[in-house]
Amino acid sequence: MMLLSAARRTRRLSPSLLAGGTLTTLIVAAAIVSFVWTPYDATLIVVENRLLPPSLAHWFGTDHFGRDIFSMVLQGARTSIAVALVAVGVGLLIGVPLGLLAAAQRGLFDEIVMRTNDLVFAFPALLLAILITAVAGPGAVNAILAIGIFNIPVFSRLARGSALSLWTRDFVLAARVAGKGAIRISHEHILPNIASVLIVQGTIQFALGILAEAALSYVGLGTQPPDPSWGRMLAESQTFVALAPWLALAPGAAIVLTVLGLNLLGDGLRDLLDPKTRIER
Amino acid sequence: MARYLLQRAFSLGLTLLIATLVIFVVLDIVPGDPASFMMGLNADPQTLAQLRHELGLDLPAWQRYFIWLGSLAGGDLGISYTYRVPVSELIVERLSVSLPLTLMATALSLVIAIPLGVFAAARRGRFSDAAVVGATQLGVAIPNFWFALLLVFVFATTLHWFSAGGFPGWDEGTGHALQALVLPTIALALPQAAILTRVTRSALIETLGEDFVRTARSKGLSEARSLRRHALRNALIPVLTILGLQFTFLLAGAIIVENVFYLPGLGRLVLQAITQRDLIVVQGVVIVLVAAAVTVTFLVEIAYMIADPRVRVGRT
Amino acid sequence: MPLLAVHELSVSIGGTAILKSVSLSIAPGEILGIVGESGSGKSMTLLSVMRLLPRAARAMGAIRLDGDDLSEKSERDMCAIRGRRIGMVFQEPMTALNPVHTIGRQVAEMYVLHKGASTREALRAAADHLAKVGLTPDRVPIDRYPHQLSGGQRQRVVIAMATALSPELVLADEPTTALDATTQVGILELLKGLGRRDGAGLIFVTHDLAVVAGLADRIAIMKDGEIVEEGPAPAIFRTMQHPYSKALRAAATLAPRHRAPKNNDAVPIAEAKDVGVTYASSWAIFGSRQPTRVLDGIFLKVAPGEIVGIVGESGSGKSTLARALLGLAPMTQGSVSIAGESLAAAQGKKLRAIRQHIQVVFQDPYGSLDPRLRVEALVAEPLHLLDRTLSRAERRTRVETMLERVGLAPADADKFPHEFSGGQRQRIAIARALILEPKIIVLDEAVSALDVSIRAQIIDLLRDLSDRLGLAYLFITHDLAVVRALADRVLVMHNGKIVEEGTVADVFADPKHPHTKELIDASPGLEAVLAARERAGAAR
To answer: What's the start-to-end Cα distance of chain B, in Å?
Structure first.
């Protein structure tokens, strides 16, 4: 509703919102369609069809096992989206309440949350994934865990920072004069006012999650066979780069388009929800 | 100022200490016994116990942590289960590839991003700005390992300008070694440069809207000159933060890109260690990278002080 | 030939007219005051002269400096004119200076840029010139950074830059609005003196009639992008014709009011005993900074129905006192009671019962209403303090009654805050404060952010509410005229202490404490300024 009213205010959709929205919708749609239909069974091995170049029968060609690349890309979409989406969800659900509470309580609790954030930030995201997979073994769930844990401090810092500036605002003081407690104020006044910032950051983290999942799967720490994954398709294509370059093209392009779409969507939403950042002058 | 730096150093040192504890605890609860892994499936129980004793695996966990911490302080990261050589030696050897790669990539992304960001901000709202923004939008979306694959396909497989991978080692002459790092550097740097360009551009545009830039214009400075002399230094303060985050990101990102080019860096070391369950190597690499991240954070804060007198000089 | 002649200047941004055919002129050595409320286009007029309008703006008309049309100059020529021939001073001294350069370097830049001076020569000249604007090297060395200076000192640096090369024309855009009254006096004297000495023309833009009344040779009054009236000062104040100028003038001269003194023997509705607030510095391992004492030994009583004004400059502790009374600031000593009940001792239900007696209206009508809530939810918010939950209909009726009481329509309850003007928003905030029918309302600079004409309306509303409902107010402000117009009694605060207190009539007629005297001298009010000028004119 907030989005609609904002869109109505500006009356027209920015090109980045339009392009980002379209791309994202297309890719999500592809992921959903892949549950019920793909041109071929993405796991079907037909050795005599291996390494076929793109043709009408196989739009993106076939891999070294003769599997249809287009079908694999479609199914890969759902893995990528699922992993990234759940990871963003983990970050939002844990990070935002932590950040809101830290801003509301200040003091020791705030200090502990912030220092824990520093601690997590000291581990570059990939390192966290390496540590987790070293312990728990590779797999999609552990990839989600690694990316999700990295998202927690991102959202808790953002929520805390935006909330802190709101806590000094007079309408929050007015709510305190009305006898409302910290949690109630966080819920009624702070959260609605930082929602747009969180949505924008959410799309950006979503995009980063797609990239991270692809990277992890590429080095064999993410999604495991037989689940198709863009990152692992790229890893497998590497051996055949000279023979069959199209193997690397389709999954790579899928990653780029998805991330591009989400980033454009984020930019567009930011302009839409916060007119201040629009460049005038 | 000295007190502030000391306080930050203390706080970051504490972070590092807690990080070692986290790493230790996480890796200690791993199922699987490194000793039996080293000896193979048919190991004789007595030799196994002997090895466990040698590796100190029969002590309680907290004791092992403090022993480990103590040797860590002395630069001893233990002995690799699989390579049977000190982990520190392994890491130093591999860093001789990863560190130059990361530094070169950081430098390259800076050299591209700052001028491009300034150019776009100066021409904000015009076509050339839109073109830069579009290009960075694409650059941010490209995974560096895929970009690396494309580079290999174009410049190695097709054009044969560079070798597709491998590293001759520094002993074979700096020229050869550097040549092997050209494509990896580009693959690492370009996506980062795209991010840095965007940050530079938006920080600069924001600064150009500040009152003091208007003051500069009212003093008679031209638009370009007020950008150079007044806006740029203020805008570089947020750029520094991102740069600091990026260095550690690049160091970790090198792990992936090294894989594409078969470079014997930290990345290949740690990935092989994971498959071979050589956890002591994983532990060592993670510690080194975390220490690097914390050190860079500290360096960024010192850079902050140099750039911003509000942090350096207190109120009077 | 006039020094500057603006002829039929029109400016529009995105099709919206900002300036409509503005014409004005100024002679060498003359001071022209441009007065108008926010959005009247007065700042845009100055930026047009500098050719520093926002990019999207389109300007038409002629601007002649000594006969040269500036609108035909190339950007390169304009750079040589800005700073060299026209200097400009801005409103916000906190942000007008570059935080990463020393003040000496920023002033020296003028000499390097326009005179080709070497860095050393320029720094020497900058030091000399800074001394001329009152920043002598022994007190404010030129290697200081802006954040180390007070607001007034920063404004002096900005003035030093604007006047370094003795320009023919100085443009000042609300140069004293962000400053305390006592600081303002010094800046005004400085601007006046510099213009007079160098024979430069000065255009002084402000919303405050009293400021230009004491300063300007000529005054132009702007409204909605047009000059509605113009004439020599102070004569223009006698001859004003345009209804808007008259309204502006009437609003600037708030009539003092005299009410029968309230019964001070009754149980005070709000009482502070020996209240102190100290802020400890933040948690630190290596050494700690001195804690700051913001309030120190405050005693205060407000009788039922009484209006008590608290005046003081920024940093005097007056807002902290308001917060302490509302139970929002942690007190380090003393006690506060509301309607005879101690605030600190109460908890839960009891605390909520006490809080029903005291409500608040804040300064900024844009910041005090949550932009994401409808007016009904905003006004109803204090109902949270009631023990029972009201039915929807009951809640709605109460909100509508309150909206009508403050002069808004019942249907306004369904709107969002951004659909209202600043004055209307302040009415919403007052409705919110009234909904529990409290006995006292704390008004924290509640009319300071409003334009003068709207300010007068809100003050009328507040007076009326107090008389009708027997409401007490604790009115916190830096504006003496407002206290005079509204309060029965006044307390003067300085550095966290109350330095003087008494009835409004007594304190204004015969201030005892030096700081009170300074405050009163610094803001004489329009009538007093005009009277002083008439006397000076007659004596000459």
So the answer is: 13
Contacts 24+ apart (CB under 8 A), B239-244: B239/B114, B239/B117, B239/B196, B239/B199, B239/B200, B239/B203, B240/B300, B240/B303, B240/B304, B240/B307, B241/B300, B242/B195, B242/B196, B242/B199, B243/B106, B243/B110, B243/B196, B243/B300, B244/B296, B244/B297, B244/B299, B244/B300
Which chain A residues are Cβ-neighbours of B260 within 8 angstroms?
Answer: 238
Minimum CA–CA partner of C361 in chain A: A174
pLDDT for the residue B314: 61
d(CA B267, CA C213): 75
- Please, are residues C50 and C82 in contact by the beta-carbon 8 Å criterion? yes
Over chain C (540 residues), the average pLDDT of each successive run of 10 is: 90 88 91 88 92 88 90 91 93 89 94 92 94 88 90 92 92 87 86 79 89 88 91 84 83 70 75 85 48 84 91 86 87 88 84 91 88 93 89 94 93 91 91 93 88 85 90 90 88 91 88 89 80 75
Q: Can you say how many angstroms the Cα of residue B7 is from the centroid of all Cα atoms in its chain?
A: 24
Secondary element (H or E) of residue C476: strand C472-477
Q: What is the pLDDT of residue B259?
A: 85
Residue of C298, C300, C295 whose CA lies nearest to C270: C300
Q: What is the pTM of this model?
A: 0.85
Q: Can you tell me the ipTM of this complex?
A: 0.84
Structure tokens at A5: 């009213």
The reply to whether A57 touches chain B by the CB within 8 Å rule is no
- Those residues with Cβ within 8 angstroms of residue A27's Cβ, 6 or more apart along the chain or in another chain: A77, A81, A254, A257, A258, A261
Residue A276 has pLDDT above 60, yes or no: no
Structure tokens at B295: 């050190």
Neighbouring chains to C with at least 3 Cβ pairs closer than 8 Å: A, B
Shortest CA distance to C49 belongs to which of B211, B227, B218?
B218
Q: Are C96 and B215 in contact (CB under 8 A)?
A: yes
d(CA C152, CA C134) in angstroms, rounded, equals: 11
Most A CBs within 10 Å: which of C325, C355, C381, as the mutation test of the A interface? C381
Strand partners, C342: C337
Phi, psi of C87 (to 5 degrees): -105, 155
Exposure string of A71-93, with b = 16+ CB inside 10 Å and e = fewer, is: bbbbbbbbbbbbbbbbbbebbbe
User: Residue with structure tokens 């305390």?
Assistant: C180
Question: CA torsion, points B11, B12, B18, B24, in degrees to nearest 10?
Answer: -160
For B24, name the nearest residue in chain A, comparing CA atoms only.
A131
Please tell me which residue of chain B has the smallest CA distance to C157. B215
Give kind and range of the element (H or E) at residue C489: strand C489-494
CA–centroid distance for C323 within its chain: 20
Give the torsion through C-alpha atoms of C505, C511, C513, C518, to 10 deg. Answer: 110
Amino acid at site B254: A
Q: Does B139 score more than 60 pLDDT?
A: yes
Instruction: Give the pLDDT score at C287.
Output: 46
In whole angstroms, give the CA distance from residue C224 to residue C20: 8
Q: In the numeric block, which tokens belong to residue C513?
A: 């404490």
What confidence tens digit (pLDDT) does each residue in A107-150 have?
A: 888 888 888 888 888 787 778 877 887 777 788 888 888 889 88
Q: Do A238 and B260 touch (CB under 8 A)?
A: yes
